[in-house]
Write a structure and sequence with these properties.
Ubiquitin-like (UB roll), 6 domains, 16-stranded antiparallel sheet, 13 helices
Length: 766
């Protein structure tokens, strides 16, 4: 509303004087503004003190003030104040926004919704903008497959001319893709194309894999992918027509039809490399994998261009320009290629900036960098730096981005490392129940990035009917800012096996050193007092025939280890390898009473299947020998079975048995006792998939193989003794740490073995 009130006190009809030709304004003022600046209003108007009154100018001034966007009402008042003619713009401000609130969103996070919303707290309320933002939110849900989603909004009036803007979201069910048809294809099969697309038809396991969800952004990428599939196979004239997306009448199902024109297949013609060379031309040409008369492939072309560029970028030519010029001969059906190289200037690294590390200290990130300020640029060093920073495990998945920007001159390049931190501390208090351990209580306090220094500290305690564990561990991969890795461990373990109970009190110290980014060596000294008693959870009577195998006493040992680690994340890997081999020796020259030599190998493989699914393989082998005439102490032998080896069998129940006559009488019954093995072999395969990814709930299918043997057994006997089990489970990566709930089912269970075993535990398996 606009109100124009002109009160001219000085002009009266009774004076009998003629109306003055001009009415001079002495001053211009603004009232009613609380949040906006007076200077901003006066700067927008043209009316000034000392100028003549002009109604047309004032009318335009009002429009100019409205354009500022802060006001919903303006009045103009002309009054005589202390003998001066004062023109006052009386403004009424729009409400300011205290909060922007989202209600009803579950499928999308609040951060995802905020990305498309430009209504912000402390801004001025603009109802038209609020309406546009509601439409943006609805469009976002449509892109994510929620075609039925509804978005409404309201404002909540508050004191002091403030409001809360509330977006009310009704997500409704997702629309499912029930059919995805490829039309016109003969060279590439439907299955070849479909299995490589993000958009997939709904299936029974669609809720686990995400199949059936329609995401417009992902589908647009898929259309481009189909063209790329053909170009990669040499069909350079292949074209993908406009897809037809049909929505069912009830708006719950989608049928998609994608037309394809394949065309003819082309071969590679003449291949040339020209331009600037920093070495022998042939070395560069070797990086071009496309060869004359081979089938043309755009994938090979891209790889070749990148490979050529890497030669230059690793030598400091960060701005090298590698241009592939292709010439298509449709009559001969060949594609000729000329690769032109302009190396540009050699570039040094200027500044390296770290962003987003509110808790982690700069040096923790910088020491993982393999590019350095002042040195020549290296693209391979840049990639390796990103992998090593991500491998720390302190940041969100995909939360490490290393990018470049131009420096202060054309001969420098700055590097920006952006990280998104995640919680690295856990406080775990859990309880569970299993058929073997009955009630299980576990507690753990850990911090994997102690004080932001990259150090780790953990305190763990576990109590059940067969286990009692207390453990304190500290580790620092850069001890005293050197490359030396230091770790120490203090513990007390009490574990009941089927026929005996082992107690140990001690600790160890480890010093390690990296050979390079992926290989390292370490040495560990362990000192522990071991005690063993007959009778375990499977036996209530003393088992005297095993006494010669008990041999408790002091263990003093040294262990040498070699590690190979290419995992993308040390805490929750989804790709890479982890291999380790160790030899531990307990000998009299170390003042050890228990004598043995133990060899162990662990090999773990991680593969990202896609769609947030990870395939994992763990292969372990162990062997132990002893110079003691009494043999290897029973508590140092290998016992297999349980949640950390072969699931589906009770903990530590697999391995060789020893038969003896109970009671010492010739006619007494024979009893079988599990004495463990001097060699073990274990393999675990897992497929981990999302269930409710947003809250960290994932599922797992697994298949386990393994057993413990006597090392003197023949290879064929060991193969025959292998035990097999399969199962499934649920893993919750909760705020207090990873929780595992797993059900294992042995194949061909033996006498006395259960047909299924449930295990609850805290922490990752491998």
């Amino acid at each position: 509303m606009i109100r124009l009130v002109l009160i001219c006190l000085w002009l009266t009809l009774s004076t009998g004087l003629a109306v003055a030709a001009e009415f001079i304004i002495d001053d211009v003022r603004v009232t009613g503004n609380r949040r906006s600046e007076t200077a901003a209003v006066l700067g927008a108007v043209q009316t000034r003190g000392g100028a003549a009154l002009d109604r047309r100018v004032i009318s335009e001034d009002i429009k100019r003030i409205f354009k500022l966007g802060f006001y919903r009402d303006i009045k103009v008042d002309l009054s005589l104040v202390d003998g001066k003619r004062v023109l006052t713009f009386q403004v009424t401000e729009k409400p300011s926004i205290r909060k922007v609130i989202f209600k009803g969103q579950e499928e999308l996070t609040e951060d995802e919704v905020k990305e498309v919303v430009d209504v912000r707290p402390f801004g001025v309320l603009d109802l038209a903008r609020v309406t546009r933002n509601a439409e943006k939110i609805k469009d976002l849900y449509t892109e994510k497959g929620h075609f039925l989603a509804e978005v409404d909004w309201e404002t909540v009036t508050l004191p002091n001319n403030e409001v809360d803007v509330v977006f009310k979201i009704s997500e409704k069910d997702k629309v499912k893709v029930t059919e995805l048809a490829i039309v016109g294809n003969s060279v590439l099969s439907d299955s070849y194309i479909k299995e490589r697309l993000e958009t997939r038809e709904d299936s029974l396991l669609g809720g686990l894999s995400g199949a059936g969800t329609y995401d417009k952004t992902a589908f647009d990428r898929d259309v481009l992918r189909i063209s790329q599939f053909y170009w990669d196979e040499g069909y350079v004239k292949a074209r993908v027509g406009k897809p037809k997306v049909e929505l069912s009448p009830d708006r719950t199902e989608i049928v998609i039809t994608i037309p394809v024109e394949e065309g003819q297949r082309f071969r590679t013609g003449k291949v040339e490399v020209t331009g600037d060379f920093i070495g022998p031309k042939e070395d560069v040409k070797k990086r071009v994998t496309l060869k004359t008369d081979d089938w043309f492939s755009s994938a090979q072309l891209r790889q070749s261009i990148n490979a050529v560029g890497e030669i230059y970028k690793d030598q400091g030519y960060a701005y090298v320009n590698v241009v592939p010029n292709t010439r298509v001969d449709e009559e001969k059906r060949v594609v000729s290629l000329k690769v032109a190289i302009n190396k540009g200037k050699k570039v040094r690294i200027g500044r390296i900036r770290i962003l987003g590390n509110n808790r982690t200290r700069d040096k923790v990130i910088r020491r993982e960098m393999r590019v350095y300020e002042g040195e020549y640029f290296s693209s391979s060093g840049l990639r390796r730096s990103e992998r090593l920073v991500n491998r720390l495990g302190f940041f969100e998945q995909g939360g490490v981005v290393v990018r470049t920007t131009r420096g202060q001159s054309d001969e420098t390049m700055d590097i920006i490392v952006e990280v998104k931190e995640k919680s690295t501390g856990t406080f775990q208090v859990g309880a569970g129940f299993s058929t073997l351990e009955n009630f299980v209580a576990q507690a753990q306090i850990s911090q994997n990035n102690l004080f932001g220094r990259g150090q780790s500290l953990s305190l763990q305690a576990t109590l059940s009917s067969i286990r009692s564990i207390a453990n304190v561990r500290f580790a620092d991969d850069y001890f005293m800012d050197s490359k030396v890795r230091f770790a120490t461990n203090l513990y007390r373990f009490e574990t009941s096996y089927e026929n005996f109970t082992r107690t140990s009190l001690g600790g160890d110290i480890t010093l390690g050193y990296p050979l390079n980014d992926d290989w390292s060596v370490a040495g560990t000294y362990t000192l522990e007092q071991v005690g063993v008693e007959s009778g375990g959870y499977g036996s209530s009577d003393a088992t005297d025939p095993l006494v010669q195998l008990y041999g408790d006493g002091l263990t003093s040992s040294v262990r040498a280890s070699v590690y190979h680690d290419t995992r993308n994340n040390r805490l929750f890997p989804s790709s890479g390898l982890y291999n380790t081999f160790s030899v531990e020796h307990a000998a009299t020259w170390l003042l050890s009473e228990n004598l043995f030599t133990r060899y162990r190998s662990k090999n773990r493989f991680y593969y990202d299947v896609g769609f947030n699914m990870v395939a994992k393989l763990n292969v372990e082998w162990g062997l132990i020998t002893s110079d003691d005439p009494g043999g290897v102490p029973i508590y140092e032998r290998f016992f297999v079975g349980g949640p950390l080896s072969v699931r589906g069998f009770r903990r530590n129940t697999l391995g060789p048995d020893l038969d003896f006559v109970s009671g010492g009488l010739p006619d007494a019954p024979t009893t079988s006792i599990n004495i463990g093995g001097t060699e073990q072999a274990i393999a675990n395969f897992e497929l981990e998939y999302p269930i409710f990814q947003r809250v960290g709930i994932r599922g797992v299918f697994f298949f386990d193989i393994g057993n413990a043997f006597e090392r003197t057994d023949s290879f064929d006997d060991k193969v025959d003794m292998l035990r097999y089990a399969w199962g499934f489970g649920i893993r919750w990566f909760s705020p207090i740490g990873p929780l595992r709930f797993e059900w294992g089912f042995p194949l061909e269970p033996g006498v006395g073995e259960e047909s299924s075993v449930f295990d609850f535990s805290i922490g990752n398996f491998f």
